[in-house]
Amino acid sequence: MIRLVLTVIGDDRSGLVKALADVVAEHDGNWETSQLAEVAGKFAGIVVVAVPPDRASALQDALTPLRGMLEVEVRGEVAADEPPAADTRAVVVEIVGNDRPGIVQAVSGVLAAHGLGVAELETDTREAPMAGGRLFEARAVVTVPAGADTADLRAALEEIADEVLVDLAFEEL
Question: Which residue ranges form the domains of the chain, and what is each CATH number?
Answer without folding.
Answer: 2-79 (3.30.70.260), 88-172 (3.30.70.260)
